[in-house]
Specification:
439 residues; Urease, subunit C, domain 1; binds guanine; binds zinc ion
Length: 439
């Protein structure tokens, strides 16, 4: 058993429902055995009750639940920063040419290492991942995630039109390869499978039906895709599906809108779409950095919440600008501020919830990860800014835990991530810090 001592914060409930959902322990501790949280509370009390537990002293920083990124693309690591284009031009110019290279196992294996280490070194312990169009590359992704110990929910991306020939498959082949990948990886270790048509624009009705067949056959695989991201995309989808009421209907008709579905972006939904998303309890994954970078628009968070749609957060690497869920939280805050009365004023507690527990709920993993409640896996990120950094200074002077949390979102980066655990296993540790120069 290990006793981790730190200032810790988590949101076991939603601050959108319970305004005081943020729980803080200034001198707190988490008791961990076999990767599970056995107790969470004050350090003094837990130490007295468990004198035999090995102590891990994490004072001087903040311990948070590991981040849950609910929308991120494996084959897009190397195209992060392709700025200046709207979605469909960005896909054609930067994204699809890079994704076409993943039939080469050498390339796919190298990027799988970059991708998994990118997630872990930013404090992300669980991710819903758009895999590759190539089944062999998806295998390499799962293999690398397993080697490192990250939780990934991932799938082969499938499409049968409008991209480029190397990235197209057929509904029959998508079904067959999906079955094989599910058999090999779903429920193996920390891996889960997500059926992943790229978006309706690149998927015929036959392809969406093949996806639905997999969802029916395997009762607990997850589903993910894109929706209502960009106005031109929405127009093309309308033309491609003349019989559908709207974008959501293209998925809804196939039976793909369920509690197991996470739909990324949802920047331009109709009221009907929001109503159906709420009714079927699917999640909208909000990707604010991507929405800004690609000029997709301002996410109507208030309308989602009013309709009762569950919302989580995603980095959308590489439309998004990096793996940091702290940056993503800050950008979500900025954009809501800019929306005036239509925006929702997000507190640090909301940001923490969106970056952790909300994602776990989206994936149906809230009994396992996303907060520090007893029984959860010990999935955690230890943020400890290097001495001399601005964040270090600000934290030393923070007047409350809320201010500390706000400063972490405002200033925190990959450089502040000191250590990361999944189920009690260390999956990342920062290298030694350069010794400060003596004057
Ligand atoms: N829609 C279809 N494919 C993509 C993608 O790779 N990124 C984003 N942001 N939207 C998409
Ligand atoms: Zn995306």
């Amino acid at each position: 058993m290990k006793l981790y001592r730190a200032q810790l914060m988590h949101t076991p409930a939603s601050p959108f429902v319970f305004p005081d959902a943020l729980q803080v322990l200034d001198d707190g501790a988490v008791l961990v055995g076999n990767g599970r949280i056995l107790a969470t509370g004050s350090y003094t009390e837990l130490r007295a009750a468990h004198p035999q537990a090995e102590g891990v002293d994490l004072r001087g920083g903040v311990l948070l639940p590991g981040f849950v990124d609910t929308h991120v693309h494996f084959p897009q690591v190397r195209i992060i920063g392709g700025l200046g284009l709207p979605l469909l031009d960005w896909l054609d110019t930067y994204t699809l040419p890079e994704e076409a290279r993943f039939g080469d196992p050498g390339h796919a294996a190298a990027v799988a290492r970059e991708f998994v280490s990118g997630l872990a070194s930013h404090g992300t312990t669980t991710a819903l991942v758009f895999g590759s169009h190539f089944a062999s590359a998806v295998d390499l992704l799962f293999r690398e995630a397993s080697r490192v110990g990250l939780r990934v929910v991932a799938g082969q991306v499938v499409s049968d039109r409008m991209l480029r020939p190397e990235l197209h498959t057929t509904p029959e082949r998508a079904y067959a390869e999906g079955r094989e990948l599910i058999g090999r990886w779903h429920g193996q270790g920390r891996n889960l499978y997500a059926v992943t048509p790229r978006f309706s624009l690149s998927a015929s009705e036959g392809m969406l039906d093949a996806c639905a067949a997999l969802m029916r056959e395997f009762g607990d695989v997850r589903f993910t895709s894109h929706i209502n991201e960009n106005r031109r995309e929405i127009e093309v989808v309308r033309d491609l599906f003349p019989g559908s009421r709207d974008y959501l209907d293209t998925y809804e008709r196939a039976g793909l809108v369920t509690r197991r579905s996470v739909l990324a972006h949802s920047v331009h939904p109709s009221d009907r779409e929001l109503g159906v998303m709420a009714e079927h309890r699917c999640t909208a994954a909000h990707c604010p950095c991507s929405n800004s970078a690609l000029g997709s628009g301002l996410f109507p968070l208030r309308r989602h919440l009013a309709a009762g749609v569950h919302v989580s957060l995603g980095t959308d690497v590489g439309g998004g600008t990096g793996f940091s869920m702290l940056k993503e939280g800050l950008q979500a805050y900025f954009m809501q501020q800019l929306m005036g009365e239509q925006g929702y004023s997000l507190t640090p507690a909301h940001l923490l919830y969106l970056a952790t527990r909300a994602g776990a709920e989206a994936l149906g993993l809230h009994g396992l990860t996303g907060d520090f409640s007893v029984g959860q896996a010990f999935d955690a990120v230890y943020l400890r800014p290097p001495e001399g950094s601005t964040l270090h200074t600000v934290l030393r002077h923070a007047e409350s835990a809320e201010r500390t949390l706000a400063a972490l979102f405002a200033l925190g980066t990959q450089a502040d991530v000191a250590q990361v655990w999944v189920q009690g296993d260390e999956v990342y540790a920062r290298g030694p810090q350069p010794t400060p120069e003596v004057a």
